[in-house]
Amino acid sequence: GVPSERRSWVHLKRVQLLQADETLSEERRDLEIAHHLIAAGDESRPQDLVEYATRAGQHALGRFAWSDAARFFEAAIGTLAKEGPGARLALLHYQCGIACFRLLDGSPCLRHFARAAALFGELGDETMRAQVCIERARAVNWMGMLGSPDFEHSRLDLEECLARTSASHRLLRAEILAVLGEQSWASGDHARAEALCQDALEATRPDADHLLRAEISVILGLTQLSRLNQRGALATWRFGALHGRRANDLSATARCL
């Protein structure tokens, strides 16, 4: 076989050629360079690997290539973590958690979200910490972890985030309330779930926050249906579909129909 040193040299030589090729799109260049830097292993310059792997991961997220995104972000995290904690590392863990969530790969998803939340907490960035906790709770909900320690931990983290989030951050509060409402619905506390979703809707603007209002309506309608309020649920879903159309979001609209 080819010696590892020779393979690394070939990959790094390919990186040089790609960097000089002006005919490639930025996305293709980033993706290919990241691939070769990762393949070159320890022979790659750490700063180059982090930069290109991060950009490649973001490109992959944008085209729904979740597995590629997770691979690129993992490579960037593995290199950047050697330099110690920081905001960039926290964001990479968050983005990798999202990619793993889309893959429904529970263990790495929750591990990355937990690390991102811890890092943002250490940095004093409560807004980003709350956003991570929202996504972590959504992942736990979607992956059917009701009754597990992860479900309870995510609920407690969200309750803490809600208490720390001021009224001026109304959209963030609305998202937290909606996800807590979904968790309460899943736990069978339908009255509390409906109240939380109503509070979430009240925190939004009728003329602007169309996508969020559509997403809240999906959960609110479920809570009303669970309370045998069929007329209320249908009205809520029609309301949500209207806002989904105004947001030009087919997925949110379809979930209300």
Structural account:
- With 257 residues, this protein is mainly alpha-helical.
- It is built from 13 helices and no strands.
- Helix 7 packs parallel to helix 9 and helix 9 runs parallel beside helix 11.
Features:
257 residues; mainly alpha; 13 helices; 0% strand; elongated
* Percent of residues in β-strands: under 5%
* Helical amount: over 70%
Q: Which stretches are poorly predicted, pLDDT < 50 over at least 5 residues?
A: none
Give the integer mean of the pLDDT values.
93
* Overall 3D form: elongated
Number of helices: 13
Strand-and-helix sequence, N→C?
A: HHHHHHHHHHHHH
Which helices and strands appear, and what pairs or packs with what?
Layout: H1 4-20, H2 26-40, H3 46-62, H4 66-80, H5 87-102, H6 106-123, H7 126-142, H8 149-164, H9 170-186, H10 190-202, H11 210-226, H12 230-246, H13 250-255
Provide a brief overview of the structure:
This protein is mostly helical and 257 residues long. 78% of the residues lie in helices and 0% in strands. The chain contains 13 helices and no strands.
